[in-house]
Amino acid sequence: MRVYSFRFGCVLAAACFVSLTWIKSMPSDEEVQPHLQTLYERLVVAEELGWQVSRDLSNILEQLRNISKPANITSNITSTANTTTMTTTLLATIRESRLGSGQQAFLQPNIYIYMPHLRQHPDSLKPNVVLGQGRRGVSIVMGIPTVKRENKSYLVSTLGSLLYSLTSSQRQDLLIIVFVAETDSDYVGSVSETIRRNYPNEVQSGLVEVVSPSQYYYPDFTSLKETFGDSKDRVKWRTKQNLDFSFLMLYAQDKGTYYVQLEDDIVAKAGYYNDMKTYTTHEASKQWLYLEFSQLGFIGKMFRTSDLPMVVEFFLMFHRDKPVDWLLDHILWVKVCNPEKDAKHCNEQKALLKQRYKPSLFQHVGLHSSLPGKLQQLKDKDFGKQALYQAHSNPAAKVSSSLKHYQQHSLDRAYKGVDFFWALTPIKNDYILFKFLQPIRISGYLFRSGNIETSGDRLHNTTVEVLSSNAAARDKLKQDLSPESNNSFIIIGAFENGVAEGEIAEELQPISELRLVVHSDADVWALLSEILIKV
Ligand SMILES: *[C@@H]1O[C@H](CO)[C@@H](O)[C@H](O)[C@H]1NC(C)=O
Ligand SMILES: *[C@@H]1O[C@H](CO)[C@@H](O)[C@H](O)[C@H]1NC(C)=O
Ligand SMILES: *[C@@H]1O[C@H](CO)[C@@H](O)[C@H](O)[C@H]1NC(C)=O
Ligand SMILES: *[C@@H]1O[C@H](CO)[C@@H](O)[C@H](O)[C@H]1NC(C)=O
Ligand SMILES: *[C@@H]1O[C@H](CO)[C@@H](O)[C@H](O)[C@H]1NC(C)=O
Ligand SMILES: *[C@@H]1O[C@H](CO)[C@@H](O)[C@H](O)[C@H]1NC(C)=O
Ligand SMILES: *[C@@H]1O[C@H](CO)[C@@H](O)[C@H](O)[C@H]1NC(C)=O
């Protein structure tokens, strides 16, 4: 800065010198000597002016710094006198600031222009990371905004559906951010506790994060203008949604390569991760702004994280004016539509900036919108049907259960491979029994509970037991009998993470009955999506 100011002063002084010399040299060459003194005096004045200008510039810079507080500004100005560049560079070099507790507040320089109230508190842009291990550098970041709902929450099953079909390598290359867009810390705490209880491993590994905004983030919503015939509540709801999406995107922006926005009441298609990744690789060189993996609202919209600051800036600029899906469309309009051409031309141009993937990978399941009282029975017609069970042809058996099945999802149909079995909440000692028509040799078994749409309805604390028709084997294995088994059944396996899989030892053959026994009261229903008895 000093060097630059000095240079600037010199340039200014030299300019004065040249112009003065030129004026003075006009009348007569002989009068040069007496004028030198005056010239020198003027030069001193000019130099003083130069310093004055430089001091003013310093002052402006300092003001800029103060304006951008609470950002920690790293000014990186090496260019010559170009104040436009200077301001831009200054703002561009503002990135993140480290605040007290070590948590980072992200910075969107102009956010203070659109939301001046943020300047009143240094923590207003500091995300409250309730659960998270700081995971970064993944291929895909998925953001799920959620708000307090008066009616049923689907958040846990939405997460279950997203996690259900992931392989272990996919789990390492993904980040799922649940953004609880509420400032009530008790509520935020209860959501994060629910998630931690249901998905302890995913939270532990950093795959699932729970984040909420600072209590100073939201403006006073009472002074909003009602537009487009929307009621006051609706204007508040859509304005807050703009701010919620913006906060979430800013938080997600530096955590991976692509960002996908979802909602808290959806189901995913099995294998969605691979489908998204393959399509993204395929489309990587094209000029899209977003890819659509669902045709509904903001569900399944994928952005490059490098585009998020621009998208967020646009949302923030007009957050009071329009709903977020209109704003997203307007970005495309602004970018490529020519006002002198017709709507057809505009639509063609916009279509180049968004590529739609079919079939849709996410389906909306919620009935109630987050706007109280609004019903939202939207369904994505391109989602199609997906397999909710895996059929196998099993040996003939008489099946029975102490569990009461729901609707048509009976054990009999599941065993035949035409449905899944879905039963009301099991209690201790409930069982599912397969009685073979005659003793047979069974090499192994596989039972999978839950499915991609109802991944939470798993069997817990449930054992797999067989009744051997080989009397010698029963006597030999007597010491292995657990107290829960009665004298005839032998425990050969148990459900772990919703799946029971194993082989059956040769000395137990042939088998006359096989059963699943629940050992403690469950708090969810039970769903069996795969029954395989290998003969
Ligand atoms: C900038 O802030 C500092 C301390 O906060 C203050 O001393 C200084 O006067 C401010 N400068 C201007 C130009 O407002
Ligand atoms: C700004 O951040 C840098 C590096 O993060 C740190 O060294 C410096 O002390 C910070 N300055 C202020 C004023 O916080
Ligand atoms: C300053 O900017 C130049 C060019 O824009 C860059 O090469 C350099 O790394 C920057 N320095 C800092 C400290 O950010
Ligand atoms: C200032 O810098 C910008 C960006 O580098 C450039 O486009 C513009 O022409 C410069 N203006 C002047 C007067 O040099
Ligand atoms: C909650 O669900 C009930 C029954 O479907 C409905 O009558 C009520 O309006 C819903 N409440 C909200 C806030 O949507
Ligand atoms: C052992 O279990 C089978 C199958 O549930 C049942 O029929 C039988 O009565 C049980 N025996 C005893 C002694 O509890
Ligand atoms: C499984 O059930 C047994 C018997 O009711 C109980 O003692 C045990 O704590 C249960 N285990 C789990 C993990 O719930």
Automatic annotation (TrEMBL):
Pathway annotation from the record: Protein modification; protein glycosylation
GO MF, one example: acetylglucosaminyltransferase activity
Transmembrane segment boundaries: none
One GO CC annotation: endoplasmic reticulum
Domain MGAT4 conserved region: 109-383
Protein name (Swiss-Prot/TrEMBL): Alpha-1,3-mannosyl-glycoprotein 4-beta-N-acetylglucosaminyltransferase B
Alphabetical GO biological process terms: protein N-linked glycosylation
Domain (MGAT4 A/B/C C-terminal): residue spans on this chain: 397-530
UniProt xrefs under InterPro entries: Glyco_transf_54, MGAT4, MGAT4_A/B/C_C
Keywords: Glycosyltransferase, Signal, Transferase
Signal sequence, renumbered to the chain: 1-23
One Pfam family recorded for the sequence: MGAT4_cons
